[in-house]
Amino acid sequence: MGPDTKVADIACGTGIWLIDIARDHPKAQLDGFDISTAQFPNRAWLPDNVNLATVDLLKPMPEHLLGKYDIVHVGLVVLVVEYDNPLPVLDNLLSLLKPGGYVQWDEADFGGLIVNSPNPKIPCAALEEVRKRVLGVCLAAHGVRFEWVRKLAPVFSKRNMEVLDDTFLPIPDDLALPWTLQHLMATQELIRNIDRPPGVASEWWELYEKAAEEVHFGASMRMGMASVVGRKPL
């Protein structure tokens, strides 16, 4: 990456991906976009070359951004993609790119969410029930199975992109605990949304407490990550 490189990060959240890049590329133009500013840091906390703004990933990109970027990154939008079809999202990403530009899509294999424990003596029944319920809520809300995550490379090829990298990364055992704690925090947020008025989700909270205890003894919940890099045609 040179000083004239322009990079966009879609669904940027806190901007952490761009902040990391800015350490090694302080002259590149690094623009982050998300549907909401809720996770954006204060402007004073960001590197000078990182700027964050709002964009709806599912709608056509603003005209002033079209064809502007050399690199577009997107990640963790599995629950945003509609009808098991990532092509509309990919088309929006491609619209931001210059000819010959690059897309990197990093995605969680949500449909491959699994529960296990290091040995049969460590229970994981409550955590497994949490997994089933979370997937059930998401499937009911979105009507999808998330199978497209492991098929991103063929999706890129449908737009005549050159696929440069297609990697699937299982979560290793040494990351099992932090990954599981992340899922538990997300489950807490889900239960809070269900628990309206307070008390209606008491069964969920009881199940959560049992699952958290299982995690304390070694049970884990994790999913792999897919990463695909492709080049837009010239």
Can you count the helices? 6
Return the string of H and E elements: EHEEEHEEHHEHHEE
Roughly how much helix do the residues carry, as a percent range?
25-40%
Mean of all residue-level pLDDT scores:
94
- Give the amount of beta strand, in percent: 15-25%
Rounded Rg = 20 Å
Low-confidence runs (pLDDT<50, min 5 residues)? Answer: none
Please report the total strand number as a whole number: 9
Largest sheet: 7 strands, mixed
The strand line-up of the biggest sheet is 3-2-1-4-5-9-7
Distance between the termini: 19 Å
Outline, from the CA principal axes? globular
What class would the helix/strand composition place it in? Answer: alpha/beta
Model description:
The chain has helices at residues 16-24, 87-96, 125-142, 152-158, 176-194, 202-217, and strands at 6-10, 29-34, 50-54, 69-75, 97-108, 114-116, 162-169, 220-222, 225-231. The longest helix is centred in the last third of the chain and has 19 residues, at 176-194. The model has no long low-confidence stretch (mean pLDDT 94). The strands form two sheets. A seven-stranded mixed beta sheet has the order 3-2-1-4-5-9-7, with helices on both faces. Strands 6-8 form a two-stranded antiparallel ribbon. With 234 residues, it is an alpha/beta fold. It starts with 5 loop residues before the first strand and ends with a strand. It is built from six helices and nine strands.
